Amino acid sequence: MNPELPPNTMQPVLVPPEDADTLHPEAGDLFKDNPIDRRCLRELSGKSIINVADLSRSEIIELCKLAAVLEKIEIAPYHPLDGKVAVTAFFEASTRTRLSFESSMLRLDGKIISIADGKLTGVAKGESLYDIGEMFNAYCDLVIMRHTDTDAVDQLRQTLRVPLINAGNGSGEHPTQALADWYALLKWRPELSSTKPSKDNEKLELGILGTPGSMRAVKSFLLMSLYFSQHIKRVTVISEMADPFGADVIDHLKAAHIDYEVTNDIQEILPQLDIVYMNSIAFLGDSYKTLDTRYKLDSESALKESAVVLHPLARQDELDKSLDRTSHNLYFSQAHGAVFVRQALLMSVFNRLDRLPGQVPTIG
Ligand code: CP
Question: Do 168 and 225 sit in the same domain of this protein?
């Protein structure tokens, strides 16, 4: 049942946002004639999302369909997350992830308490995540945490009893970034959501700059891409390292029966790529490592006319601003869409799908 609208509020209608940027693919095709499967999304109720493996392919697609709806309608009058409090606990710098989660919560009428800098918590006095987890149980209904340590998630979960969303843990994973990546790709090519394999000559060549073994956004993107292997011809990782994958990622690639290779020359491989996943920084040990500046793309690069470029941002010299106003730019769609796909995840984890307006087509 949908809640009653407060007096004097307009019925939401499916309209393009007034400030739609024509470079961004439209969200509509993902849910047109394709109702959202609420039963599938209810599986996420109360669930922690630590790794890509915590999401199924169907859940990813339904989340993206819901995000596409949320991108089109005015959801605020339905107060989907009223009464819910999330903490954004960031023990490592962030622009997009923390702010887009906070924007998502606030636009759904949830509330946020925020740790923008872990040094301002009891950690500065030697407090453990074990103890902080116990405090979070009392203060909020959901934790969204980023941390420099890969094992921080495990430390917190020793005592945490509310759901946890991993917003990036050291060199581990960043599953909601991968959701934002794939939301942008599914808007670009809605047919990628089909379980029917693409014809061989229509399968996509995917190029990924970076090291999945040590770069969490790259790793999560690659792991989520394996759910769409029926549409992917080959994955090429562009890296200075001889073995950038790490053993567990190789196992996943083999299991998905995807051809993969490694090259250290982006210019050589560029003309054949359909999707180029750029990246700039890896968090190694306790410091950032910047990639070699020879891995640079600009509007003069030999990209296929139809190719799209993704980048989780923040960027440095590897992604020139001259690409921003070209049709290759999918990275702003990635960043903008993150609000809606995170809203979809929050509504699912908080089990508030019953707050969707009646005009949104759903089943289950
Ligand atoms: N993409 C991403 O994780 O960006 P932030 O580091 O700004 O959160």
Answer: no
**Structure-token pair, residue 76:** 């605020």
User: What pLDDT is recorded for position 14?
Assistant: 40
Instruction: Determine the residue of 92, 97, 310 to mutate for testing ligand 1's pocket, defined as the one with the most ligand atoms within 8 A of the Cβ atom.
Output: 97
288 plus 210 within the same structural domain: yes
Please, what is the average pLDDT of the chain?
A: 90
For residues 301 and 112, give the distance between their C-alpha atoms in angstroms, rounded to a whole number: 42
Contact (Cβ atoms closer than 8 angstroms) between residue 105 and residue 165: no
**Distance from the CA of 312 to the center of ligand 1, in angstroms?**
6
Ligand 1 centroid–CA 199 distance in Å is 35
By the 8 A CB rule, do 90 and 116 touch?
Answer: yes
User: From the CB of 110, is ligand 1 less than 6 Å away?
Assistant: no
Containing 99, the helix (H) or strand (E) segment is helix 96-107
Same domain? 203 vs 255: yes
Ligand 1: distance of its center to the CA of 204 in Å? 26
Q: What is the model's pLDDT at position 12?
A: 35
What is the distance, to the nearest Å, from the Cα of residue 39 to the centroid of all Cα atoms in its chain?
A: 22
Residue 131: which domain range? 28-173+337-358
Quick one: pLDDT at residue 75? Answer: 96
Which pLDDT does position 284 carry in this prediction? 53
All residue ranges of the chain with pLDDT < 50 are: 1-20, 283, 288
Question: 177 in ligand 1 pocket by Cβ < 6 Å?
Answer: yes
Q: Is the CB of 312 under 6 A from ligand 1?
A: yes
